[in-house]
Amino acid sequence: MAWTTPATFTTGEAVTAAKMNAQVRDNLGFLYGAKVASVGAISTANVPSATWTLINYAFEVVDTIGAWTAGQPSRFTPPVAGYYLVTTSVAWSADATETGYRSCRLWVNGTTLYDQDVRPAMNATQQTKAQRVIYFNGATDFVETQVYHTKGSDHALSSTGQYSDLIWIGA
Question: Which of 165, 148, 166 minimizes the C-alpha distance to 157?
Fold first, then answer.
């Protein structure tokens, strides 16, 4: 259901059921309905050292607007224009030979960095997280999560999972 720009009624104008449904019922339904997507991955995929690597999500928890598809598993492409809160969390596996740092970032349209979390590596399962309010045009804009580390060799993500959420907050 799409948003209909509210009309300005004039004196003497006939208010029909169709107009009331479009102006009131449908717009309230649009505002009331949740616009959210949440995806996850339970993966021990190896991430190459010193290379920004996309996270490919394996399943959706919820997607009320069709922003994620298995055909493009690394991205959200919201079909409703507006501002969204985008969050991502990446679990890195523990490794006794930890050196360097671990990072994740929100990457929009394959060109623009919106948020990045960089943490020193440690010998424990470790989370890197990023979040930002981002405007999407409702047609072609998309966001992806990329990961990076400087261990010097491949490093596995933890099987405790990776996730990303997209929550519409307004036009």
Answer: 148
Check: CB of residue 20 under 8 Å from CB of residue 2.
no
Helix (H) and strand (E) counts for the chain? Answer: 2, 12
If you compute the radius of gyration of the chain from its CA atoms, what whole number of angstroms results?
20
This prediction's pTM: 0.84
Element (H, E) at 146: strand 143-149
How does pLDDT run across 7-49, given as a tens digit for each residue? 898 999 998 999 888 888 888 877 778 899 999 987 668 899 9
Find out whether 135 and 83 touch, Cβ atoms under 8 Å. yes
Q: Tell me the three-class secondary structure of 32-49, residue by residue.
A: HCCCEEEEEECCCCEECC
